Amino acid sequence: QHDHHHRPSFEQGRRSRHYSGRVPLGLKRRGLRVVVTGGAGFVGSHLVDRLLARGDSVIVVDNLFTGRKANVLHHAGNPAFELIRHDVVEPILLEVDQIYHLACPASPVHYKHNPVKTIKTNVVGTLNMLGLAKRVGARFLLTSTSEVYGDPLQHPQAEAYWGNVNPIGVRSCYDEGKRTAETLAMDYHRGAGLEVRIARIFNTYGPRMCIDDGRVVSNFVAQALRKEPLTVYGDGKQTRSFQYVSDLVEGLMKLMEGEHVGPFNLGNPGEFTMLELAKVVQDTIDPNARIEFRPNTADDPHKRKPDITRAKDLLGWEPKVSLHKGLPLMVQDFRDRIFSNGDHTTA
Ligand code: NAD
Ligand code: UDP
Ligand code: UDP
Asked: Catalytic residue at 174?
């Protein structure tokens, strides 16, 4: 098994690169050195848990903008784990086998906070991580988003759909940023022979989500726990598909280890209106929670639901956790954080 005290040398790393991804499933292999940018965030920290558990060495690169040390604190003292406070907009030198590139604020509240910074993170940050991957020959996985489909004119959205995106709207720093990141990844793949993987992630929820990030699941769960009304924007008939975080992490790892570049939609095809989601939250937390209607935001996509045929066929992946099963799994974490120390913030 992997020896946590042994730090693989550069030479071993070079060799393992050639084996990475080509070891038949089920065979033991030595741990890889993996970078997870954004690894102190919601999705990243769950991914880090899984990578360390399977014996990899993990370097988290995170500027802690929306991430929290608390998300990875349970790995402090593990020699196979390292947290580097670093902004991916600046270059960095590391020797690794795989790069999971997640660094980017993900919720509208956060990515609109400083839109220029968001697009720099997506473009310059992704360029730097691709440059790093090229230099050391690492495999690179980009976490793109369903937002590349914009306000989709096709439903459900398959990967072949090019999207309906507003280039000058308030969401553009994020969705056009991610579209450019995908372009960069493909150009490094075609031009420099880099091994890249592209995931288009649909709305994901679970423990360690930022409490006050304004997203619908975190809002409703926090509101129900605080005995506040659930704020439904617009008429509440817009739809989303909600994926539990463990399903996403499984999909990201299958994509990284597999042979296919993608892009792959990773999401749960179960489609819910915001009013139906409010009902699930009422059933799970507080049947008496009231609903309050609020005006909707500009550019809000009316419908979103992934077509995951490609991931099913080529990666053998599909989500296992339904909304009814997954939602209760995040309630205790939210309860602890909201009530234990009065910490209502993301810090
Ligand atoms: P998150 O905000 O919890 O995590 C993002 C992490 O990136 C944070 O730890 C943050 O501190 C870090 N970060 C941001 N800018 C950085 C920078 N310039 N340099 C270094 N670190 C930086 O969000 P998440 O939900 O875990 O999202 C992770 C990734 O998945 C993001 O790329 C996001 O776009 C993508 N994604 C998430 C969802 C979702 O529903 N959660 C949906 C689609 C795509
Ligand atoms: N880069 C990095 N770490 C590395 C290698 C490159 O941060 O180990 C950055 C580098 O500073 C550059 C970007 O990645 O800004 C793209 O690098 P690449 O070598 O592809 O392009 P070039 O440096 O020729 O523009
Ligand atoms: N939404 C809502 N109440 C809230 C927060 C969001 O009804 O308190 C709606 C929002 O208008 C959107 C949907 O929920 O239609 C999903 O919003 P979120 O910000 O979670 O994700 P995204 O729009 O990025 O899919």
From this structure: yes
Q: Cite the DSSP H helix spans in 41-99.
A: 42-53
Q: Can you give the pTM of this predicted structure? A: 0.91
Alpha carbons 173 and 54: distance in angstroms, whole number: 36
Which run of H or E residues covers position 139?
strand 139-145
ipTM of the complex: 0.97
From the list 35, 36, 81, 86, the residue with the least C-alpha distance to 65 is 86
To test the ligand 1 pocket, which listed residue (60, 99, 104, 212) has its Cβ within 8 A of the most ligand atoms?
104
User: Within 13 Å of residue 79, how many CA atoms lie on the same side as its CB?
Assistant: 7
- Note the pLDDT tens digit of each residue in 211-226: 988 999 999 999 999 9
Which of 111, 149, 174, 205 is the catalytic position? 174
The answer for residues whose C-beta is within 8 angstroms of residue 191's C-beta and 6 or more apart is none
CA distance 201 to 214: 18
* Burial group, residue 1, by CB count within 10 angstroms (0-12, 13-18, 19+): exposed
Q: Each residue of 44-84: pLDDT tens digit?
A: 999 999 999 999 999 999 999 999 999 999 999 999 999 99
Pocket of ligand 3 (CB under 6 A): 108, 203, 215-216, 219, 231-233, 238, 240, 274, 296-297, 300
Reduce the DSSP state of residue 98 to 3 states and report it.
strand
Q: In angstroms, what is the span from residue 89 Cα to ligand 2's centroid?
A: 11
